[in-house]
Design brief:
The protein is of the alpha+beta class. The protein is built from 12 helices and 31 strands. Mean pLDDT is 94; it is low at 1-20.
Length: 599
Amino acid sequence: MKKYTLFLLCCLLGGAIAASAGDPEQFAQALKNSTPVAYTADGSPAPAFIKVIRSWKDELCEVRVVNTGSTAVRLKEVVTGTVGKVLPATTPFYAEGFQMLTQTAGTLAKPETLGNYTDAGHYKIPQPAGYLAVYNLLRLYPAGDVQLLLGYTSSQRFVGKFYLSADTIKVVTDLENLELAPGEAFQLEELMLATGKDGNQLLDRFADRIHHFHPRLEFKQPPTGWCSWYCFGPKVTAQNIYDNLDYIKDHIPALKYIQIDDGYQPHMGDWLEVGNSFGGNVQQVLRSIRDKGFEPAIWVAPFICDSNSIIYKNHKDWLVKDATGAPLRSDLVTFGGWRLKPWYALDGTHPAVQQHLEQLFRTMRNEWGVTYFKLDANFWGAIHGGYFYDKKATRVEAYRRGMEAIIRGSKDAFLLGCNHPLWPSLGLVHGSRSSMDIKRSWSVFERSGRENLYRAWQNGRLWWNDPDCLVLTGNMPDNEFNFHAALLYATGGMLLSGDDLTKISPERLNVLRKAVPPTARAAAFDNINFEAGRVTAASGEQLILLNWQSSPKTISVKLDKTYEVADYWTGKVLGRFKGQFSLQLRGHDGRVLSLTPKQ
């Protein structure tokens, strides 16, 4: 009797544990069975004649909203589906933000912001009370082997998001209070709901479906180069550029693109005007870059201007408006800007703005010779809380129309999205910044490193990832620089040096030389601990080891055959290993190891 009671208790306890862990299949079924609801501009449920029509085909869901009545209705949002009390509050997750600088992890009960700048806090994008709004992609890791992926495979018109609380997940589309006329229908963005044991395979399927709606803007290889910002900032001089250009030509000519960053322009928005920087002649610096055999690259923030700019003074009709019809001050609805603020946003739905952007980039490409554009502050091209020239356009459409004009003008030049609305940029940029700005400190190496690795799957699938600059000079210990270099190498994305290279040591220069060209493939990590990853590069199979903790740690990996293991940066052979390889790393250390098969 006692044995039976103990057996029954174990069964009941096991069932309780399984239930508390959350069942991904149960979650999927609950979402498909839930009732979609449309909400009007005042937040109340829409009338019954507003129909939300879902069509599931395997793991894909097509959604339409139709007005079957005789009265126009302004719609705030559609909750495509709701799941409550299926996954426990302790369920880990990862979610994207609307703009590039926001990423969230942690658990449903205790979300953790990965970066410094949140959509709701820093950018003031509204979210409902009691919920955290995340965007584009939500990955859930219930206890057990099966993962959940919820993601929007398109971003053509509407913003797709998810509202999270400790016990509830809502799938939502923002309709921005657009008017739905009688007989009219809105086609919403497609949703994917996928489950599986291999997270990398889930992301493969997700990326493939995104390509259906947004074919990748192709660029053959991830660019390599040098950026002035992290060594000279906005006070960069022509001599700074020339000194580094000469050094690069003599010591590491593989850094092809020489990028002039923020500071050359007199005002935000006046990109073709003469400022004080470079003696008032940035074009001469760009010509010198090309004359020495390198590619000129430049920073531009195409969607913003300040109140002292020529654009603001002469073309107020080009700007996104507030409720009174005046130009919308960005600081009244979002972050106001980091210099020469408050900024105003150019309206991508305005035909004159589209012509301006096309001509601006045509001039910089054809007459200035620029072949690489770092497009910053692109978020303001999709600013919320304003009114557009095209009254039926969403902020996604405003941004995409502006970007399409930029593509027409820039022709074959490389376009890097930075501080941009992430999903609305699909198919419109060759490269995408995948982390916040780098700084020479361990806390930033660690934080931006996680941001980059969570997004590493995008590299080579959606665009080339830009993990921001590799910095190898400064007063930091070798182990932390090793960690930083190994992690950036693991992303497989773009590689730009951010140092004054006239001051780099021979040892660090060697690391920089070995980091180019990038592998163009992100290392595959087994889990989100991001301690051991593998990648196949042109030189063969490689292993990346990262110790995130401050104390020494031994990291072990399984080997399927006998390998000779060598340090990639130095070439030092560590020995031959079969079955398993273990290496003790100092705290905050990283390694890139070459694996050479041996008999």
